[in-house]
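Hey, can you fold this one?
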Amino acid sequence: MKKLMIISAILLLILSACSKPDDTATNDGQSTSGKVTVSKVEVKASNENEFIEPGKTITFTVVETLKDEEGNTTENLLTEGYTVEVDNKDAAKTNDDHSVTILQNTLSGTDLEVTIVYEDKSYGKNYVVRKNVEDTIDSEGVITDPEDYDSLVNKQRLLSSKYIPSDLVKLQVPTVLSNPEINQLRKAAADALIKLFNDGKKEGFTLSARSGYRSYGTQKSLYDGNVASKGQAHADKYSAPPGKSEHQTGLSIDITCAAVDYQLSAEFGETPEGIWVKENAHKFGFIIRYPKDKEDIVGYLYEPWHLRYLGVELATKIFDSGLTMEEYFQQ
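Sure. Predicted structure:
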């Protein structure tokens, strides 16, 4: 009997040494004891910023905060047991490790909502896709993404002399000049311009297009003529050198109205038509590309007539921010 009791005691000691109470939790050297409860659940992401670049991957971790009866807490990091979903599969994909990768061709301004589901509860993360414009220019300053609607063109970022948009179409709105080249835009911009003009007309504002697409050669002739007649300084202030004009993208259009005799004048911005355009262009995917008092940033004087097509999402975000296109990509 005594021998049996000794054997039982030894077995109890062995079992005690090999087990841990169910109500004890440890993590990273910290521990809680007694009754343990989950006091908070949150999701941490490798990118907690508002903006995310195309091609980047975001990882997510579910974090449980455990708390014992004495108030001690510790974090329990989970890498499984939850699901991740995206609301826009044209912009991003989910991976087997619960991460999300932004597709390389996703344009700036695209909204993305990621939903993490853990124990029947949903946790959301919201992002806006935005390019790093430094990645879209080569060593000679030539833009590498000219076909993208969010391509940034200015005096420091050139278009190749060989670049011609692949989907130019004839404008289907009232035009001022007869030159067939400048009465073109890329299809998405041309379609949006029709909607802009039609909605303006419904509100009592009649608009006309004066100059759309201009080839590298046409821009060179205009610039060289400006230099010859008015000097280099004047030409650099009021016109773009070839390769540095947004008109070559086929995404920019100069518009006007009868109140300014169909000319390109800063007074257009003070007309009822110009005011309406300024307040509503973003709804159709356009921005006023060269706003007032932003010459030092955009490189050009105020041009209330110069619209740039970006798509509704990006145009609206830039309009709402009150920033120029340059500032938006740099913030």
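The chain has a mean pLDDT of 90. Let me know if you want another pass with a different chain boundary.
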